[in-house]
Amino acid sequence: MMPDNTVVIDRAGLDRLVDVLRARGYRVIGPQVRDGAIILDELDSGAQLPSGWGVETAPGRYRIHRRDDDAVFAHSAGPGSWKQFLHPPRRKMLEIGPDPETAAPAEDVPVRSAFLGVRGCDLASIAILGRVLGGGTYPDPAFTARRKDLFVIAVNCTEPGGVCFCASMGTGPGVSAGYDLALTERLDADGHRFLVEVGSPDGAQVLAELTSRPADATEVAHARAAVSEASGRMGRQMPEVDIHALLRDSLESPQWQDVASRCLTCANCTMVCPTCFCTTTEDLTDLTGDHAERWQRWASCFELDFSYLHGGSVRQSGESRYRQWLTHKLGTWHDQFGSSGCVGCGRCIAWCPAGIDLTAEVGRLAELAEESADVDG
To answer: Which alpha helices (DSSP H) does the chain contain, by range?
Structure first.
């Protein structure tokens, strides 16, 4: 993190970065304030970035507030994630006319995108989706087309939120590989500026179009310290246990009944999760019956029909559906894809209307397992 060739741009330089990327043909996606939240959407200019806005998060709670400064990236994850641009919530797959022989895939030509403001947790989620949807024997062509030529401007996090736990998942607060440029925001008596690291040749070419100066050793040291200190200010922490083994051995735990008594099975957690990838298909026809379309949309393991087989759904209780989600996300995901499916962003905690905290649920499972071991011993 922050090598010797780190440079510094000012606030105007950040705006200029958006202009340069747009001039290169990128659709620039970044954070902006809308409808009481900091959301991700296309930027027409750097002026749309959320300068001076922060967030307050807790289980079942998300609020934006005005800060005392003009920091641009001093907020934690909002309701949207970068997944929505790589793996859209809904997309047309097929169009069929009166003659079945004319059936043709729907045109899906993604625009070359640049993501501005990708945190460590979300950078990890993009990599996970790359393995799940873009890897294997049969990669998803829609996903791979959107990810191709993606330009990523990552941001080292210095102000984690109340539901963040990326440090205990090994995904933040500092960013890792997978970016073209990485920024660390600094705002102090010396002014508002951004330390910039280059992560790719494309990143170096874009940076060359900006006015910058070399970062001095003190600036680099202070930036590193700010990111390091953020690790100790996480709002949550996952228990330091073998979670994969814990969930494997806790399938009959009474904790599943306890959480089911609170869970609404509303699927909010899977909708805001940056790595949940399940989909289903819907066939739609017009009133004349001359035209039909097949659409793909996000699905959730909390839906009653998600596990439907001939004769009924396999997981009919809220208890079984919550257990499926948590044990897959934190446990069997390792067996399928070689890593956890959780990046510690905390979105599922903040946007759960019942305020269910998966770190607390795993912690309670660990306590119950330890109590059981003590009794058996």
So the answer is: 11-23, 83-86, 120-132, 141-147, 166-169, 201-207, 217-231, 243-248, 255-260, 268-272, 318-327, 333-337, 347-350, 358-376
Question: Which DSSP string do the residues of 37-49 spell out, in sequence order?
Answer: EEEEEE-SSGGGS
Tens place of pLDDT per residue across the chain (377 aa)? 455 589 999 999 999 999 999 999 999 999 999 999 999 999 999 999 999 999 999 999 999 999 999 999 999 999 999 999 999 999 999 888 887 777 777 777 778 999 999 999 999 999 999 999 999 899 999 999 999 999 999 999 999 999 999 999 999 999 988 999 999 999 998 899 999 999 999 999 999 999 999 999 999 999 999 999 999 999 899 999 999 999 999 999 999 999 999 999 999 999 999 999 999 999 988 888 788 889 999 999 999 888 888 888 889 999 999 999 999 999 999 999 999 999 999 999 999 999 999 999 999 999 999 888 766 65
Residue with tokens 């205990």: 168
Query: How are the residues of the chain apportioned to helix, strand and coil, as percentages rounded to the nearest 5?
Result: 35, 25, 40
pTM: 0.93
* Bond into 173 cis (ω within 30): yes
Q: Are 352 and 83 in contact (CB under 8 A)?
A: no
Rounded CA-CA distance 81/241 in Å is 28
List helix spans (H) across 201-317. 201-207, 217-231, 243-248, 255-260, 268-272
Please tell me whether residue 319 adopts helix, strand or coil conformation: helix
Residues recorded for the chain: 377
